[in-house]
Amino acid sequence: ENRDLQYLIKPQKVEFRSLNFNNTLHWQPGRAREARDTVYFVQYKVYGQSTWQNKDDCWGIRSHVCDLTNETSDIQEPYYGRVKAAAAGIYSDWSLSCRFTPWRETMIGPPSVTVVHRNKFIKVKLQAPCSPYRRKKGSKIPMANYYDLLYQVFIINNLLDEQHKLLVYEGQDKVVKIEDLRPGVSYCITAKTYVPMLDRSSAYSSRQCTVL
């Protein structure tokens, strides 16, 4: 019976998820859904090291997620995480994540977008998302410090079709001018970050809309 419980509470699908180097380990509970008092224990290590480190904040927790951002801050290193469960005094075996290299695998968020309009043009100001890591003076380091980011700016003419996004700019400029627009028409701007080296795009930023 103990052996069964040990098997049934073992965590499933242990994986890293990462956005802008905010690196979290996620897992799903084992098959024993009724084991309500299950708690979890998390360890991590750099690939190639023999010793696992305990993550103290995630030792005996009920949550199914553990923040390992600080423990995985060397973004070029590959890491592993692992989780075990305990219920009714019985401990499961460890469940291991796949190898995780933050620089290669993090998803990059969209830029923040500010729109200023004039009579016939829109000026778009773009700002790269920030990483959780800080400069010596305390400000957060932007993701553009780690990658050659391109910005993709799209315009939506609400008169024509709210779903149709027209790519009007791709490049590294942080200020983009969109000209020859029609007064009295409602336009929305949305943008993505794109990393050519990894061929990876962010989600769209939230739409900023304006009437000229």
TrEMBL record:
Cross-referenced PROSITE patterns: FN3 (PS50853)
InterPro entries: FN3_dom, FN3_sf, Ig-like_fold, Interferon/interleukin_rcp_dom, Type-II_Cytokine-TF_Rcpt
Subcellular location: Secreted
The organism's place on the tree of life at top rank: Eukaryota
Main localization (coarse): secreted
GO molecular function annotation: cytokine receptor activity
Record family assignment: Belongs to the type II cytokine receptor family.
PANTHER family: INTERFERON/INTERLEUKIN RECEPTOR (PTHR20859), INTERLEUKIN-22 RECEPTOR SUBUNIT ALPHA-2 (PTHR20859:SF51)
Protein's recorded name: Interleukin-22 receptor subunit alpha-2
